[in-house]
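It would be a great kindness if you could assist me with a short task in structural biology. The full record is reproduced below for your convenience:
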Amino acid sequence: MSSDVTVSKVRETVDWLKARTKRFKPAVAIIAGSGLANSLPDLENRLDIPYSRIPNFPKTSVKGHKGELVFGSFKGKGVVVMRGRFHYYEGHQMGFIAFPVRVLASLGVKTLMVTAAVGSLKPAIKPGDLLLVSDHINLMGSNPLMGNYAPFFGDMFPEMNEPYDRALRKEALAAARRLKIRAAPGVYLAVSGPSYETPAEVKAYRLFGGDVAGMSVVPEVIAARQLKMKVLGVCWVSNFTSGVAHAQFDHAKVLELGEKVSVKVKALFEAVLESGNI
């Protein structure tokens, strides 16, 4: 897709959404990943719009991703939530994964909170824990900014010295301590998926400096940083990766654990939204 077509599609989607939200202007967006459909803050004046109705938004194909945009207000702050995301492994072009982030920015979003289920690369990081992303390593083999540059989206070569906002992460860690939620900062290592990692790959990823591995987040964050958004990354550990523990991976169990973790993530989001950093 050319940059001109991309810009026109972003504008088409934004105009459609503005017409149906009475030009509601959200300042904060949340992307809710696998198992976290119920992590939404308690929003006032809530409006749910299925992706199937939104121009240029495809349906999600991953179980646990509801597939809708939710608009509303929390303590006077405008919020929009993506209940489900699009993945490279679903067959979407990498450049398309930047599309929803660009739509959110054009709606007025300045702060993006991304969530995801991840696999732990280390025994000390256990299923059910939260990891607040301090940095990432992109091993997906591509970049969402390739081939679709337009000044409308920001710099061609965005600076990535601090992809995840330090102040927001500090606020989230402090909130986790108050709420007695087990959470720590760490590095997210992104792979394309959809197959899980081999034991040899897990050993290599640890040597690279990764703490957890996942198949999303990074393309969205790169697009967000091009747009100068502040980013908070909140990942929940759904399982140990291959060779770290002997338990077999089961996606149904991941979703079951996600239901329990959603309560923690919801409380954390609400605490951060109430802070002065947003």
Summary: The chain has a mean pLDDT of 91. The chain has one domain: 3-273. Residues 3-273 form a domain with the Rossmann fold fold (CATH 3.40.50.1580). The chain has seven helices and nine strands.
